[in-house]
């Protein structure tokens, strides 16, 4: 059976990014949109990444805060209750609410494997048959990304990030391969759940894309918590007894043996967290003479758009949703013959790592800024420099840094490492996006006693000539 349908916008992928572009392309207009989804509406972030990981990490952060405040006894982690909280925040892996939202917003939802099958045309295959959907204006690739699993690990059936956030049986021992965001966050909650965690990092630091001091503080915190983090390790072999895939979050077989330059490690499980890549290989690009590289390079026909992880841009949900809002409004304006709104060409990408302490940054690191501007002003203060920040924990560790372009006296980068530092970040994002000179920022008065006073300490640390225009 084949059924042909027509919408103004056809979106492959119904994660937060797909939902956003469909919403912004159609709201307050008569345009129509359909979301085509092969798995759960709501996507990776809602069920397997952002939401479950933060649902697991927040109670751990609260417990750690209590342990660092005199007058309180640290609460005990209830493993079953913690996993139940995770299940609540992922709606027990049901997308009913997400589907209701989409349909309530006037956005159609089609289940099945969608692939481009011609110009402005998508074919959807499901257990109910084949449907052909045409787009009047745009086909959008919002297909997200998939974990990179090097050949070395595949025969051992390793965990991916979905297994880690969907954990059911906590292994006694687990090896985590990688030193990025996923690896550091997963190591935090796996350790708290009672696993003996060994993190193997090929490079000489964790969080290599953050400022060096942020990685150093994160490394110290992981080790202080009992995580065995080994830097500069080459993995040369991985084997597993009775390897088989038993499903999300469950043990995948017998004992794992990891051979490294630092010796042999025996473990019950192995999590490979060495990166993700855009999911573009199975979306039908060849039917219109394209390859994944064309999409990443933007070398595609006007009717085809890519957004979120699938675009090759920063693989962060909030960034993908921002780009979806922008592109959605542009699609609507083009379809309606209206002026097409253009965003600034230098919007910064913020990021928060929900380790303990949290790490948050936006804009350029010191190294990136020096490559861009040459000479830059860099100021750093300890987290304890502000009374309000120190009040968050009695023995607080962390720091804050600003990178300033001397020629414009504007903040071009900011990093915060400390308790709840993610809540400090948006002020920095506004400062960088708004190109606010530091002599103006001096007049943004932080409330006392809050952690925001770190801004005052940072601005005071700049040379005197920066204080007045």
Describe the model.
The structure is a single chain. With 469 residues, this protein is an alpha/beta fold. The chain has 3 domains: 2-48 and 90-146 and 278-336, FAD/NAD(P)-binding domain (3-Layer(bba) Sandwich); 149-274, FAD/NAD(P)-binding domain (3-Layer(bba) Sandwich); 357-466, FAD/NAD-linked reductase, C-terminal dimerisation domain (Enolase-like, domain 1, 2-Layer Sandwich). The protein is built from 16 helices and 21 strands. The chain has helices spanning 16-26, 43-47, 50-67, 79-89, 96-104, 151-154, 161-165, 181-192, 212-224, 292-297, 317-336, 366-373, 387-390, 425-433, 438-441, 453-461; strands spanning 2-12, 33-37, 108-111, 113-118, 121-126, 129-141, 145-147, 173-177, 196-200, 228-230, 235-240, 256-260, 263-267, 269-272, 276-278, 304-306, 351-353, 358-363, 377-382, 399-405, 410-418. Strands 1, 2, 3, 4, 5, 6 and 16 form a 7-stranded mixed β-sheet that branches. Strands 17-18-21-20-19 form a 5-stranded antiparallel β-sheet, with helices on both faces. Strand 4 (113-118) and strand 5 (121-126) form a beta hairpin. The mean pLDDT is 95.
List the helices and strands and how they pair.
Layout: E1 2-12, H1 16-26, E2 33-37, H2 43-47, H3 50-67, H4 79-89, H5 96-104, E3 108-111, E4 113-118, E5 121-126, E6 129-141, E7 145-147, H6 151-154, H7 161-165, E8 173-177, H8 181-192, E9 196-200, H9 212-224, E10 228-230, E11 235-240, E12 256-260, E13 263-267, E14 269-272, E15 276-278, H10 292-297, E16 304-306, H11 317-336, E17 351-353, E18 358-363, H12 366-373, E19 377-382, H13 387-390, E20 399-405, E21 410-418, H14 425-433, H15 438-441, H16 453-461
Parallel strand pairs: 1-2, 1-6, 2-3, 6-16, 8-9, 8-14, 9-10
Antiparallel strand pairs: 4-5, 5-6, 7-15, 11-12, 12-13, 17-18, 18-21, 19-20, 20-21
